[in-house]
Amino acid sequence: MYSEITSNKRKSVLLAMIFIAVIIGIGYVYSRATGDQTYGGVAIAIIISLVMTAVSYFHGDKIALYTSGAKAIGKEESPYLYRLVENLCITSGTPTPKIYIIEDPAINAFATGRKPELASVAVTRGAIEKLENEELEGVLAHEMSHVKNYDIRFMTLVAVLVGSISILASIFRNRLFFGGRRDNREGGNQLTGILMIVGVVLMILSPLIAELIKLAISRRREYLADASGSLLTRYPEGLAKALEKIAAQNLPMKQASQATAHLFLASPFQGKSLKSLFSTHPPIEERIKRLRTMGV
């Protein structure tokens, strides 16, 4: 169990480092191709994506809860759900998060909050009604592990890097095709041609590469939350059974959004659509397999 957690953390950091290397590479080629030695465009791109991500970082939890249709509840409105969450918090030594219910028959849940003191957990009505006690407990432990592991904070860093790469690619495209190059007079025509080709390739591929890396990181964090949640409950089979029910009988959520899909226990989309193809979640079958090979 601890080996799984350590492995996933190490691989997630490695993927983030690849992101940073891609940004540095784009900045270098941009500078050489345009003759811009000040990296002004790179700085502007990073500032823009930082501002955009700051809004998401400080207000993203409220936006996610609102767009999913989650409604806050008190202890008296759902004592069963409230007790499960409280017991897990006592076990893990974390503050009790705000609890929300989503009136949707699908089996799903998500947690948000950049640190445990500001956490919120939202559970669908379908999860409450269709899951057994130990299954729902496994789902809640998984979601609370996301907050305890600071996954939201980590994914914010990834969002900054993805945004930076996308904006850099756009600036690079405009500069190459419309801005010209200031140092052609220096006789570097052959180098200019090579860098133009590299620039076009980066312009086309870098946003796709960034998105694929983001998906890989998100999937690694799901495996980590599975492992951390199972360590908390000491019963991996509970979450495994919940995932089996999701695979067998789940429905797409009514208010599913690509922007918040990565927050949920399982993808809120169903079928073989393009949204499912680029899912932020690993295959449920693989998650179940890993859970059933874990010892506690």
Structural features, described:
With 296 residues, the chain is mainly alpha-helical. The protein has one domain. The protein is 67% helix and 6% strand. It is built from 10 helices and 4 strands, in the order ααβαβββααααααα. A 4-stranded mixed sheet has the order 1-2-4-3, sandwiched between helices. Strand 3 and strand 4 form a beta hairpin. It is elongated and about 70 Å long. About 4% of the residues have low confidence.
Question: Gist?
Answer:
With 296 residues, the protein is mainly alpha-helical. It has helices spanning 2-34, 40-67, 79-92, 125-130, 133-148, 151-179, 189-233, 236-249, 274-277, 284-291, and strands spanning 70-72, 98-102, 109-112, 120-124. The model is unreliable at 183-187 and 272-277 (pLDDT under 50).
